[in-house]
Write a structure and sequence with these properties.
six-stranded antiparallel beta sheet, disordered C terminus
Amino acid sequence: MRVGFRLALLALACLALSGCEAAPSRAESIGRFEYRWGSKDGDYGSTDRLSPPPPGRVGDQDLWVRARLPARASEPHAVVFFADPLGLQRAWVGEHAVYSGEQWPVRMLPSDSGGQLLTMHFSSSHTTKISGLSVGNGQDLTAQTIGREYDQFVIGALLAFLGAILGLASLRRPRVPAYAWFGLFSGALGVVTMAQTTLLSLLLVPSTEFWRVVQSGAIFLYPIGFVRFVETVFGDTQRKLFRKISHGLGAFLMISLALDAAAIADIYVIKRFVYPIVLVTIVPIFRMMIPRARSDRNARVFLLAFAVLFVIGLPDMLVGMGYPILPFHTAHWGILVFTVGLGLVVEGGVRDEPRSLE
C-alpha cells in the first residue's frame, strides 16, 4: 500500500506539471454591465462584475442584465461564452434568443450582433451570478480557457481522483483512519479547485441545482477531513478539541443544507463563512504543531508544506483583498504541494506510529 501511495503522489505531481502554456487568443471579455433587480423595465445600475451578485436584491428572484457586445461579435462563427452561469434562464441579442434554460454555455451569435445589447434574465431563489462573459471565435475561446486554466483543472481532477483512491484504500485498512480523512480532504478540495475554473463550464452544465450543492458542500467537507486528519495523526493531546471542531463543522453543513432545501438561505452564500472558521481552526493546530516540530519529523513536514502553501497562495489572497500582483492564479500549485506534504505525513505516521492511528 505504501509503495502504491508514493507512486500515486508522484503521478499527481508529474501530471500536474504537464500543464500547457496559455495559447494566444483573440477572444474578448466583457467587463461592463447594467443590471436591475425585479422587473425588466426601469432604471439600471452599473457594475463591472456579476460574481458575487450585484447589490440591491432585497428578496427579488429576478435579475436583468444588459451588456453591449463588441464589434467582433459580427465576425463569422462568433460565439458568446457564459462562464459558470448560476440561475441564468434566458439571453437575447435583439429579438434573437441565444440561450434558454440549462444549455451548453457556448452559444452562436447572430451575424449582426456587433454593437447590439445582450440581455440576460436570471431567476432563482438561490444565487444568481455569472463568472465571466467572453465573445470571439469558438476556437479562440476554447484555446483561451484551456490555456489559462488547464493546470488548475488537472490538479483539481487529480486531487479528486486521489481522494477516491484513498477512500477505497480506507475500506481495506479500516484500522488506519488517516487514509479515510486524508481522502475526504483531498477529494473535496479537488472538487473545489475544479469548481473555481470556467473550464468546467465547457464540460458540464454548471447551473444545475445538483452541481451547485455539490461544489458548495465540498467547501464544508474539506475542512472536516483536514481537522480529522490532524486529529488522527497528531491529536494525541488535543483530540477532544479537534473532535468538537469537526462535529461543529458537520452540524454547520447539515443546517446549511436544510436551510438551502427550505429556500430560507442559499448554501452558496452561507459557504463564505467557512473560510473564517478554517482560519480560526488553524490557530490551535499551530499551537500544537510548532513545539512538536522539534522532535517530530511529521510535524516538520506538515509545517514546511503549509509554509509553501502560504507563500505560493499569497498572490491569490492579495487578489481577494483587492491587490492583484500577478495576471494568473497560483494557489492551486500551493494546494498540490501541501497535499503531497500531507501524503508524506500519512506515510510517516503509518510507518512510525501505527498504534496511534488505530
